[in-house]
Amino acid sequence: MSKSEQQRKVICENYEIEYLLRRKQVKNLNLRIYPDSRIIVSAPRRVPVSIVDSFVKDKARYIHSALEKFAQARKTIPPPKEYVSGEEFHILGDKYLLKLEKGDRDNVVIDEQNIRLTMKDTTEFKRREKLLLKFLDQLCLTTFTEILHDSLALFQDFNLTLPTLKLRSMKSRWGSCSPAKKAITLNKRLLAAPRSCIEYVVVHELCHFIQPNHSQDFYRLLAAIRPDWKEQKQKLKQLEPYL
Hints:
Structural class: alpha/beta
Helix content: 25-40%
Distance between the termini: 30 Å
């Protein structure tokens, strides 16, 4: 923990709230609650800790409610995949069932609402995992590349060039961009979301090539190109525990 951080506790009614206080160059107190139950408060350097503690106490009901929702969401998160018949996978908002079958060669295909994983030896877990993840990664690349090309056409007035597309598994964000490197990074987990949600994330990141921050100008641009962005953002938020 750095010198600008401090772990603190406050007593609210009959329960305790533990939070991380971060001293930053901000004008106001800012509270963030994360799905893993972390509570982080950013505060100006000169604001007394007593004021910060009072701020947290005032937000106690909101904090308690948010923690309860995250706790309930964690209960519904499925266990780690074993890559066996009957497991569910979500692709572009639709549900697919895995069918593990023995065959002459290793192969993965989508057949209607099934993902058929054919293997010479179906008992090898690592091989099952490798084959399916490679298939999903390729599907990510193909799908996201297509959406990026389609989305870029919406920015014709800005003469944007096609950025490099990178894929990563990320826990805290759906996408990021680096205008200096002309690159966009998308979360692999987005493959489970409806196409409209992926399009929103891509447009959001492309807007940052024109407006690098989250200013009013940025949101005006985003709304002009993707008028339903709030709806898609909310949809992603609701899906987040399951993706």
